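Hi L.,

You mentioned the student needs an example of a multi-chain input paired with its predicted structure. This one should do, with 659 residues in total across all chains.
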Amino acid sequence: MNIIVCIKQVPETTEVKINPETNTLIREGVPSIINPFDENAIEEALKLKEKNGGKVTVITMGPPQASEALKKALAMGADEAVLISDRAFAGSDTLATSYALSRAIKKLGEFDLIICGKQAIDGDTAQVGPGIAEWLGLPQVTFVVKAGVEGGKLVAERLLEDENEVVETKLPAAITVVKQINEPRYPSLKGQMRAKKAEIRTINAAEVGAEESKVGLKGSPTWVVRIFTPPPKTGGEMLSGSVDEMAEALALKIKKNGVC
Amino acid sequence: MGIKIIGEKCIGCKICVPACPFQAIDVVDRKAVIDETKCNLCGACVDTCKFKAIMIEREVVAPKVNLSDYKGIWVFAEQRGDEIQEVTLELLGEGRKLAGELGEELCAVLMGSPSIEKKAGELIEHGADKVYVVTDKALSRYSTFPYTRTFVSLINKYKPEIVLVGATTIGRDLAPRIAARIKTGLTADCTGLAIEPEKKALMQTRPAFGGNIMATIMSENHRPQIATVRHKVMKKAAKEKGRKGEIIKDQFKPEAEDALVKIREIIKDKTVKVNLAEAEIIVSGGRGLGEAKNFKLVEELALALGGAVGASRATVDAGWISSHHQVGQTGKTVCPKLYVACGISGAVQHLAGMSSSDIIVAINKDPEAPIFKVATYGIVGDLFEVVPALTKKLKEVRG
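Structure written out for the whole complex:
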């Protein structure tokens, strides 16, 4: 089965710090990583391939340096990697991004399954996966925690609020996966050597056949008016005394706040 | 279209340089220079510049539809098992505020099995002026294709200005599909909504980077403007018994695509007694509990408070509790009135999922634990002593 995995290169959020003087985000020196949920998407694709045969192609849309993320995917074991890169894509929101990715996927030829991470940890929108499915008119299964192929059909278990839902759908289809689905493998030494030498195929807007009016700022209905840092939590109070004294003080505070 | 440095305003202070996530800014001869091959037009630098020397020029794309044709605030009335979900009432509360500012109607869209129609009155009592109702067996449980198609056909027919959807697993499956079909703007997981007074358009504020920054987003030249909204942030609409409204029934049109995704099985998690996302009070346990059986302490405190049981990722990974309880970036984002963290150190990923709670109580033996930085009340101590003592005292003070 031919599997396409869509990934995004993101700054490692755990290291994002705020400069207290300027109250802005310090992003210098923050390492770039593959969005963690997308690593799960790659892992799941590799597992499905190992079981059912086929090919795993990893794609990303981004600036030239995003090829680093693709190299890591190759090192993990992906067969091919394609970078979709063009100035025309800059400023794309989730609608324009999902359009560009859907065009690129069409360009790559026949496929059975598209796998995306549930969401990216920088934007946290979770909108690109379903967006791609819509542009391509495919069934979608979101928040997948277990996936398999039975008799040419995809069987997937979805992690919902307080229950799981097992669904089946015909292929081709698109799924988004949650962190709990698997444990992404470390690249093997052989994989790393191979990735190092690999040439990343890059395609631009014209090559994917993207209409200019549907990508970049022009193709994006939403735009960011303002970015600001939320006011820091202040006034935290540390309680002291014996265990019983602290427990009583806290119980009274909770009661006073009227939450129970 | 693109990014521009206004030479006379730029003093070469370099504040914008580290703000760029793509390392696209350099200062040459005391002026910022942008490497356009690297710049992604994200706008992070624009807000950092104290001299307003960086500008992103957006070519104004004329609206493709007549904006004034679109009127009214719509709320997606999420139902599960024929029960209207709490988040719907929160959306009605917020929708009423927006409708008032625009001087427009507040409407709800209710889809479900034929028996769902009787719930329309509940939506009217919580502020809906109109309820659009579409019923069919194919709509009894949420499914992407029939819900998307039905909602889109209602939007095309009745033309709302704003559509609000709860940021639940249902809402976040449905809304991107609708927005991509109509080709309109969608903002995810909003925690603040307001009307921009000049353009009368929706300003949508949401956290990004795990809550480290907030962004305000608009899509004023597209209709409808769609937003998914986080649980528990907006104030629930008050109930007005006997309130009158209009019920408009629309026909469901079945299509072959409705059968593409079939539900095989629903696996209930019996350990979930109170849905985390809707809980007013959450008591969570972390690695400090030591082993699975000690979750009992957390459960007892949750029971005393009438709250839900949450968990850190470490405890779920260790198999102490099911993943439906997980709070944080890889689990659920919650925003209860009270969040009690027992033996949770407070990794950034956990904080991203709960730091917007109203009151945060942290109980941990390590005074340096990052959880104390976001805590309203902190107790440094042994949770095996503190948690049972708190459970006991709470029972006493509540009588």
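You could point out the following to them. Chain B is about 25% helix and 25% strand. Residues 363 and 379 of chain B are 5 Å apart (CA to CA).

Best wishes,
N.
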